[in-house]
Amino acid sequence: MNWELWLQNFSVVAGIGFVVWILVHGARSERWQRAWLRLKRDRLGIASGCVIGLYLFIGALEMIQLPVGPQGATSILSLLAGSVPVEPSFSAPLATTTLATKDPKPLRGRHLLGTDALGKDVFVTTLRACRTALIIGGLTSVIYVPIGTLLGILAGYFRRWVDDLIQYFYTVLYSIPEILLLISVLLVLGEKSLAKMAFALSITGWISLCRLIRGETMRQAERPYVAAARALGQSQWNIVTSHLLPNVMHLVLIQLVLGFSNLVLAEAMLSYLGVGSPIGTPSWGNMIDGARGELSREPVVWWTLTSATGALFGLVLSLNIFGDALRRAFDPKRG
Amino acid sequence: MADSPLLEVRDLAIHFATETGTVEAVKGISFSLQKGETLAIVGESGSGKSVTGLALTRLLPEPPTIYKSGQILLDGQDVLKKSPRELRTIRGNKIAYIFQEPSTSLNPVFTIRNQIAEALQLHRPEVRDFDAEVIKYLDLVGIVDPAKRLHDYPHQLSGGMQQRVMIAMALSCQPELLVADEPTTALDVTIQAQIMDQLRELKKQIEMAIILITHNFGIINGIADRVAVMFRGKIVEYGETHTVLANPQHPYTRALIQCIPQPGQKRRRLTTIDHAALEAAG
Fold this sequence. Notes:
The structure holds two protein chains of two kinds. Chain A contains twelve helices and two strands; from the N terminus they run αααββααααααααα.
């Protein structure tokens, strides 16, 4: 295993740990307990949560590597899909022969969503691509959420020059068109990798979280419990970490979920533009990029594009619905 | 009283720099406090009484606050000349506060035990058994069955209970001076009476000076040794509580005392204070 694989495995563990940490931190407060009660009654929210859970499960199957197979490590998903045969070329969903007009060859098996140019099963590739989406979403979140939260609290609590500095910083970043910034960063970093993409996305990702947390912190800092903590002789750092942080954590969670869908879309977009996922990595963006050339073919190869966008759509929609459900649960008035 | 006072405020003036000019919130006040003594600072909203209380450990945000002149001597040392680090050791440790709104003064995400334990950790590193110490102080402020309350969150308590927790938190640091800034204003009348009784009781048990900031002359009787009446940033009357109550000199003091409803009194219009007349009188 090379270092990048280790980094990805680490990011998975770190990401899961991070979410657990947020939940454990938040779950102590009354606000979170009430939110949970409301969320439990929100059927659409729960359904979208289950869909996200399914994506996470599939992604995990692809991420967990077992020490078997010819390369020394094979993912659980690959093992499960091991019996799916590789065909000579394109084939339509559930077809019995390849797509060639002249000399169609019989297939070794049926494929729910057909096969791609290399004859690989599109359904399996779509499932395997979950991993890429989750790694980009997870790794980027692990980088940008702590930065955005901390800077937001610092700006909102200390105000004055700290606030000015942080605001100038993110306003400058925000003034550059995001896509141009992303592409230039990725081109500067050179050879494509998921970690580099996560890094680039983090550069722009923290801004909206930082703004949100800054505003909420300003509101919280006015509340008497902060004055009471100061009157008790608490250090500034202690007030920031143990008094303000738990009180803005619910916004971090909501933003994390909603931001995740943007990251998944950004991965697809960057891969489509050719600066995203490394070639050969199963990713929805790579699939869409690959399908671009096949759309002009006769008969048209539509299934790669459809399954990739379908999977993307399902995840992004669920994340957005779940994020909205969380927001409603935490703030029933604004819902 | 041959001892040097615990706290001596000399000619303290506090200004706020606002966009529309400087506001003189406190205009040169002086008072002093012996160990174990209780001083009531009485005045209406905006008279500078809360600002005075917060200034004692420099809790007012700077800017806009400007400490224009004067000294705040705590054990003979000027608080206004201390570094932020030194100030933090004074806050809680020497001077503790309780505020008007108990419901929002407690952090909503911490249990009672953790809030008080946090204060203990800060100022009393010698304490080993936090639970026992927290229970001791909850018991002291009259919370029934304190062991059961340890893991409650602030929202699970009534307003009166919350204020008792605040008092317990302040007392747990064993301060020499407790600044109670309108501790009963947000509570209903029966709870007000309970909390004041509790403070009176605590005063007997613990050797601790109290500054009681209030707009209500009615509650200071029996607890305050001395009273300072503040009006428009100045102390207009200062003396022994019973003397001031029996024989108020300043028209504003008289007006405030008249505002106390008397039981059994004939129904009449509530007294209001004629500011224009007071202003003219100086």
